[in-house]
Amino acid sequence: MKFCKECQAYKTIDSFYKHPNMHDGHLSFCKECVCERIGNHRAKHIEEARRKDKERYEKKKSKPGYQEKENVRHRKWRTPEKMKAHNTVERKLKASKPMNCESCRTEGKLSAHHPNYAAPENVLWVCQACHSAIHQQ
Question: Which helix (H) or strand (E) holds 125?
Answer without folding.
Answer: strand 124-127
